[in-house]
């Protein structure tokens, strides 16, 4: 079973940067999508960013484009590694719990829409979250 453990949250001033890490393990299929969601108090959960395992395609919410960067070093042969979310130019609106999430699709395919399908059908595995607070 896929396991995800986040770290890297904290308190930062407006304009500052943080890097979130998600240590992932247990991937058994070649094709999966893994990414970050966030939820602020009183707001709905929002998909922030996603990266696909096969082509490395990335997705970003409009609210974070140009400021956040997702990357992954999960090894194909072991199914373990870390997914990072580099967050720059942080704003108070970025304050939220950030969750790492993933879904497996199966053996290698030519599907270039893994993230889109992950957001549509839902993620199967979730971490416990890490809190990011941006002060004004």
Structure characteristics:
136 residues; single chain; mainly beta; 7-stranded mixed β-sheet
Give your account of this protein's structure.
With 136 residues, this protein is mostly beta strands. The protein is built from 1 helix and 11 strands; from the N terminus they run βββββββββαββ. The strands form 2 sheets. Strands 2, 4, 5, 6, 9, 10 and 11 form a 7-stranded mixed beta sheet that branches. The chain has a 4-stranded antiparallel beta sheet with strand order 1-3-8-7, with no helix packed on it. The model has no long low-confidence stretch (mean pLDDT 95).
Give the topology, please.
Blueprint: E1 3-7, E2 10-13, E3 18-25, E4 31-39, E5 46-52, E6 58-60, E7 68-72, E8 81-87, E9 96-106, H1 114-121, E10 125-126, E11 130-135
Parallel strand pairs: 2-11
Antiparallel strand pairs: 1-3, 3-8, 4-5, 4-9, 5-6, 7-8, 9-10, 9-11
């Amino acid at each position: 079973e896929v396991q995800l453990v986040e770290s890297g949250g904290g308190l930062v001033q407006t304009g500052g940067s943080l890097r979130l890490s998600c240590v992932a393990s247990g991937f058994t299929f070649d094709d999966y999508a893994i990414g970050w969601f966030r939820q602020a108090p009183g707001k709905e959960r929002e998909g922030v960013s996603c990266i696909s395992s096969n082509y490395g395609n990335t997705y970003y919410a409009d609210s974070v484009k140009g400021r956040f960067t997702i990357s992954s070093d999960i090894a194909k042969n072991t199914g373990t590694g870390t997914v990072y979310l580099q967050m720059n130019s942080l704003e108070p609106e970025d304050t939220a719990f950030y969750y790492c999430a993933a879904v497996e699709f199966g053996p290698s395919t030519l599907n270039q829409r893994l993230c889109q399908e992950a957001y549509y059908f839902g993620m199967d595995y979730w971490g416990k979250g890490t809190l990011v607070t941006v002060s004004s």
